[in-house]
Write a structure and sequence with these properties.
By secondary structure, the protein is an alpha+beta fold. The protein contains 17 helices and 13 strands.
Length: 561
């Protein structure tokens, strides 16, 4: 697996789009990096930029961006709601794929050393890149902000990790580190009071609030035996939060960093803020995500809110995201565009999913054209996806059938299984055609020399083997999907029993069609042992499918009056 890291630098400029564009141009100039999101905030006067790539390319792009920010942003003139200490306030690196946190931390140190040496900017390491636990927390490092750092940097305990022990008047200082994926998330309130927003933030954030004697506002601060203030913990783990007023929107917000979304996901943070706000007579009106978010966060939120309504969660990915957006109010302040805000969507290579992006007429026209692909393999995968879609439909209809309210979760489970098979089969619609194209590419390789012939022959065999494995996978998925179809024929909404029957017919046809492709491609393999084994397994699957189809149709016909 290729190594992939994400970088999310925060620049202290949120109003001048020309400055922001010059910074992001530096990032985009580096090969091996993809800019995912640019999220400027006027009230905070801060822009969060997100990009990904291989580690060397990412730290090179980050260096160029930090350099450009130091040239364009004058911190002596900066005003904004968000705490800050430099032109590039913070620059975290996040491991995404094929790389450990320890390795990512080493890249953060490498970047920090270069910034300190070449740009003469004081750099502090944080989180996984910082070996001193007393200096690993970003808020602790940034305490005092830009204005207070001229004195703070002179203290022996606050000597920078890299660069001069001087706080630049123009560029300030910066923090570079390695951390887990963090979701920056703001919840909107129907109040303009920063004090009340802060009270809610203290209710929910892990650090909570300082404990006081008697009155929690004016009472004397309670200290431990070492003289340190005692805290009353908040209700949410792995959450940092403050309250602020956003002049741009005319509302107060709870601004949160969700530092571990496996512990406190977005939807739980939202609901807890709703609860705490209501206790103080305040209403939550919506929320906003800053930067990008993992797909899982949106899908989990969609499922969470559907389950609260006792509704089936076995709906499409698109529908789950729609429910999440509406339930969290993510479109209150500005449109929420999933294709621009979900990290997996930004990284998706749509060139390999050409067919399933077509409408029904386009797909039929493409199939009927003189091109040999899409052919029987892609059509088999698509027929299979339609078959399980029918089974899933019956499950969803059954989940909210009048009088069956106590069975919604049972049918929701079946529908969720069906959605999985549907999604996997849709991927194989294009993958079967991609496999065919690989064979054509291999046949087009040069064959003038003996070495070229050897390379070409090996490529043809590898591509043919793959073109055998793809339709076999279609067979397996379609056969497995018939478990859902049979269950729905047997115990689903009786008004839709014929839909389950048609689903079984589709699944059977998909298995038989895909098996034809398995056999014809296996015939071209020189590895006869592999060819014989996959054909034998395919024949067994075909026979089992036909038996299961007969069982399902028997159930269906018995219920047709």
């Amino acid at each position: 697996m290729n190594q992939l890291i994400e970088c999310v630098p925060n620049f202290s400029e949120g109003n001048d789009l020309n400055i922001i564009k010059q910074i992001t141009n530096e990032i985009e100039s580096v090969e091996g990096v993809k800019l995912l999101n640019v999220d400027p905030g006027k009230a905070t006067n801060r822009t969060v930029v997100t990009f990904v790539g291989n580690p060397e390319a990412v730290i090179n792009a980050a260096f160029l961006a930090i350099k450009k920010a130091s040239e364009l942003i004058d911190m002596s003139k900066h005003k904004g709601e968000h705490p800050r200490m430099g032109a590039t306030d913070v620059c975290p690196l996040i491991p995404i794929a094929g790389i450990t946190m320890e390795e990512t931390a080493e890249y953060a140190k490498k970047l920090g050393a270069r910034v300190g040496k070449e740009l003469n900017i004081a750099v502090y390491l944080y989180e996984a890149a910082q070996s001193n636990p007393e200096r690993s927390n970003l808020s602790v490092i940034r305490n005092g902000e830009y204005e207070g750092f001229f004195k703070k940097i002179k203290l022996p305990d606050w000597k920078p990790d890299f660069g001069p022990a001087e706080h630049s008047v123009k560029s300030g200082s910066t923090v570079i580190g390695a951390r887990d994926f963090l979701v920056a998330y703001n919840v909107n309130l129907n109040t303009t009071s920063t004090r009340r927003a802060n009270s809610i933030a203290f209710d929910v954030r892990e650090a909570g609030r300082v404990k006081r004697e008697g009155n929690q506002v004016t009472g004397k601060i309670v200290t431990d035996e070492k003289g340190n203030p005692v805290n009353i913990p908040g209700s949410l783990k792995s959450v940092k939060a403050i309250g602020w007023y956003i002049e741009e929107y005319g509302i107060a917000q709870i601004s949160m960093n969700l530092t571990n979304i496996n512990i406190t996901p977005v939807h739980i943070a939202f609901d807890e803020v709703c609860k705490r706000a209501a206790e103080r007579g305040i209403r939550v009106t919506g929320s906003e995500l800053v930067g990008v978010v993992p797909l899982k966060s949106m899908l989990d939120a969609g499922k969470y809110f559907l389950e609260k309504q006792s509704r089936s969660i076995g709906v499409s990915e698109k529908e789950l995201i729609k429910i999440a957006v509406k339930s969290l109010g993510l479109d209150e302040l500005s449109p929420f565009k999933p294709e621009e805000r979900i990290i997996e969507y930004l990284l998706k290579d749509d060139s390999k999913a050409r067919l399933i992006k077509m409408n029904l007429v386009e797909f039929a026209d493409e199939t009927a054209s003189e091109s040999p692909a899409p052919g029987g393999g892609s059509i088999s995968a698509y027929i299979g996806s339609l078959g399980i879609s029918l089974g899933t439909m019956v499950a969803n209809l059954s989940s909210h059938k009048q009088g069956w309210d106590n069975r919604w979760k049972e049918f929701s489970g079946w529908a969720e299984k069906g959605q999985y098979y549907k999604s996997e089969l849709l991927k194989l619609v294009d993958e079967d055609t991609n496999a065919f194209n690989k064979i054509m590419t291999a046949f087009g390789l040069p064959k003038s020399t003996e070495e070229e012939k050897k390379i070409r022959s090996s490529a043809i065999q590898e591509a043919t083997k793959y073109a055998t494995e793809v339709p076999y996978k279609v067979m397996q998925l379609c056969y497995d999907s018939m478990e859902v179809i049979k269950a729905m024929a047997d115990m689903g909404n009786p008004n839709s029993v014929t839909d389950a029957g048609v689903g079984a017919l589709c699944a059977r046809s998909a298995v038989m069609g895909a098996f034809l492709n398995v056999k014809i491609n296996a015939a071209g393999l020189t590895n006869k042992d592999f060819a014989a084994e996959i054909v034998s397994k395919g024949k067994e699957l075909e026979e089992k499918t036909q038996t299961l189809e007969n069982e399902i149709l028997k159930i269906v016909n018995s219920k047709i009056k």
